[in-house]
């Protein structure tokens, strides 16, 4: 059956956040904080192990005092910031204001790159009459990222967890997205990189297609198979 709606996750699906060392370097440079390259790389490794970069590697261990806010991090903007700055504070950095600066950096469009086939696939879906929603577990407004990278014009609706007080795999988010697009769940596909969170759409009757959460250089065409559900072959 040809789909009428396509729901896409954000991080690891349509966009990928910058590497941890680039994230840290941008903040250090902006704050005028000079550290030797060896120290910068050491800080970056520890921040990555801590899972401090939203959209980056998950934490190896969530400290007990952050367990509750980590579990609910995508339901409110406050919990999202508290969770990730809390993880970052497990790593001693040269200046205390760097923790909030790191969190602020990850929300900027410059911190994100679209996957190479994102514009092509979204544009082709629109050409074929498929309506598109972005459904993301997130604690901040990602719309400026889409506008800055020229993808906003392809998106009919944004359903962001912190704006609804619910997070995937809660079926409420997928239901809101389908209703916003005016399509039945059976006529929609959810495309994401998280087997637990994104596959929650199947509970409503949506089809689910998973992609690999890889650096953009290593996943040039992971989205193209979605076009096979939209009334035609995947783009070459």
Give the tags:
236 residues; alpha/beta; Rossmann fold; 2 domains; two-stranded antiparallel ribbon; 7 strands; hydrolase activity
In short:
With 236 residues, this protein is of the alpha/beta class. Helix content is 35%, strand content 12%. It contains nine helices and seven strands, in the order ββαααααβαβαβααββ.
Number of extended strands: 7
* SSE ordering: EEHHHHHEHEHEHHEE
Order of strands across the biggest sheet?
5-4-1-6-7
State mean pLDDT (0 to 100 scale).
96
Instruction: Outline the low-pLDDT stretches.
Output: none
Major sheet size, sense and barrel closure: 5 strands, parallel
CATH topology of the largest domain: Rossmann fold
CATH top level label of the largest domain: Alpha Beta
Rg: 18 Å
Structural class: alpha/beta
Q: How far apart are the first and last residues' alpha carbons, in Å?
A: 22 Å
Organism: Streptomyces sparsogenes DSM 40356
Pfam families: Hydrolase (PF00702)
GO molecular function: hydrolase activity
Protein name: Hydrolase
């Amino acid at each position: 059956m040809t789909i009428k709606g396509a729901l896409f996750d954000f991080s690891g699906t349509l966009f990928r956040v910058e590497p941890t060392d680039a994230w840290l370097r941008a903040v250090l440079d902006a704050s005028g904080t000079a550290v030797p390259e060896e120290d910068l790389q050491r800080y970056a490794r520890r921040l990555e192990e801590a899972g401090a970069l939203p959209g980056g590697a998950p934490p190896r261990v969530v400290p007990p005092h952050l367990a509750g806010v980590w579990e609910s991090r995508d339901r409110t903007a406050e919990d999202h910031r508290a969770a990730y700055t809390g993880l970052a504070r497990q790593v001693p950095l040269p200046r205390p204001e760097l923790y909030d600066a790191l969190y602020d950096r990850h929300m900027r469009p410059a911190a994100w790159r679209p996957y190479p086939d994102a514009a092509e696939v979204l544009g082709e879906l629109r050409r074929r009459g498929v309506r598109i929603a972005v459904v993301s577990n997130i604690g901040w407004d990602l719309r400026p990222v889409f506008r800055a990278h020229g993808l906003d014009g392809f998106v009919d609706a944004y359903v962001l967890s912190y704006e609804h007080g619910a997070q995937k795999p809660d079926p409420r988010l997928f239901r809101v997205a389908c209703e916003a697009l005016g399509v039945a769940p059976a006529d929609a596909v959810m495309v994401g990189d998280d087997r637990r969170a994104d596959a929650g759409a199947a509970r409503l009757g949506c089809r689910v297609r998973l992609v690999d959460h890889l650096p953009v250089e290593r996943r040039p065409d992971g989205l193209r198979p979605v076009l096979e559900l939209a009334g035609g072959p995947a783009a070459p």
